Amino acid sequence: MIDLKLLLFAQYPALMLLSLFFLISYMLVRKDSAVKSVLWVLLFGVSLAASVVFLFLGMQQGYWSLKTLFPIPFVSWIGIVLTIVLFVVHFVHTIEKKHNKRVLEKELQRAEQDKAQAVAQAQAEARAAAQQAHEEGRIAAHQEAEEARYSQAAEEAGAAAAASDLAREVSAPIELQLDSSPTAPAFDPMTGQPLGMVAPAAFDPMTGQPLAASDAPAFDPMTGQPLGNTPEA
User: Fold this and answer.
1) Within a 10 A sphere around the Cβ of 103, how many other Cβ atoms?
2) How many alpha carbons fall within 13 Å on the CB side of residue 201?
3) What angle do CA 156, 158, 160 make, to 5 degrees?
4) Where are the chain's structural domains?
5) Residue 101 and residue 4: Cα distance in Å, rounded?
6) d(Cα 183, Cα 198) in Å, to the nearest integer?
7) Which side of the chain, N or C, has fewer Cβ within a 10 Å radius?
8) Weakest-pLDDT range from 67-71, 81-85, 114-118, 193-197
9) Confidence class for position 81, pLDDT limits 50, 70, 90
10) Judging by beta carbons within 10 Å of its beta carbon (0-12, 13-18, 19+), is residue 216 exposed, middle or buried?
11) Which DSSP state fits 73?
C-alpha cells in the first residue's frame, strides 16, 4: 500500500526546484510587469516554505534524516520530473510568445514603413503635380504676355503705317496746273495796247510775293479818272 504521507513529504526537492523556477521567472519579468513580479515572489516564498516544511515533517515521521537525506528517495523523482516538464512547457510557451511578439513587431514595423513610403510617394506626387501646374501656369502666362506683346506690336505697326500713310499724303508734291485762258495776252504785243479791261498780276509761287501788276485802262489814283490806254506796271 502506498504511503500518502511519504509521497507528499518526499516532494520537498520538487518544491525546492519549483521555488528556484519561480525565482528565475521573477528575475525575468521584474522590469516589465510589477503585478507578475509580485505573483512570482509570492509563489517563490510559498514553494520554498512548503519545501522546508515537508523536509522537516518527513524527518519527524522518520522517513529520512540529515544523514539519509541523500540520495533522494525514488518517490521524490515524480515531483522533480513533473516540475521539469512544467518548466520546459513554460519555457517553450515563453519562447513562442516572444517569437510571436517579434513577428508582430516586425509586421507592425513593415506596415509603418509601407505607410511612410506611401505617404512619401503621395507627397512626391503632390509636389510633382504642383510643380507641373506651376510650370503650366508659367507657360500660359508667358504665352499670354507674348500674345499681348504681339498684339501691341501689331497695333503700333498699324498706327505707324497709318501715320506713314498720313505723312505720305501730307508730304505729297503739289501739282499746279495752268489754264491757258487766264494766261492769254492782256496786251497787243505789237502796239502794247490793252485788249480789253484787264488787271493782270504776277506773284512768286514760292513765297506768294507780288512781282508785277498792271491794269487797263489806267486811272489816276487820286481822282479815279482814266488816264488813257497806257498800262502801268
Assistant:
1) 10
2) 7
3) 65
4) 4-113
5) 44
6) 12
7) N
8) 193-197
9) very high
10) buried
11) P
Residue 83's contacts (CB-CB under 8 Å, 6 or more residues apart) are 14, 17, 18, 21
Q: Which three cell numbers stand for residue 5?
A: 504521507
SS3 at position 141:
helix
H helix or E strand, kind and range, residue 202? strand 201-203
**Distance in angstroms (rounded) separating the CA atoms of residues 195 and 185:** 8
**pLDDT at res. 154:** 81
Q: Which residues pair with 216 in a beta bridge?
A: 198
> What's the pLDDT tens digit per position in 107-137?
999 999 999 999 999 999 999 999 999 988 8
DSSP state, 181? Answer: T
Three-class SS of residue 185? Answer: coil
State the Cα–Cα distance between residues 97 and 89, nearest whole angstrom. 12
Sign of the CA dihedral 217, 221, 226, 232? Answer: negative
Q: Report which of 85, 63, 77, 87 is spatially closest to residue 11, judged by C-alpha positions.
A: 77
The C-alpha cell at 135 is 510650370
Q: How far apart are CA 37 and CA 35, in angstroms?
A: 5
Which ranges constitute the DSSP H helices of 63-198? 76-170
Whether 197 and 217 have beta carbons less than 8 Å apart is answered as yes
For residue 115, report the phi and psi dihedrals to the nearest 5 degrees: -65, -45
The rounded Cα 113 to chain-centroid distance in angstroms is: 22
Average pLDDT of 201-213?
A: 71
The span from the first CA to the last CA of the chain, in angstroms, equals 187
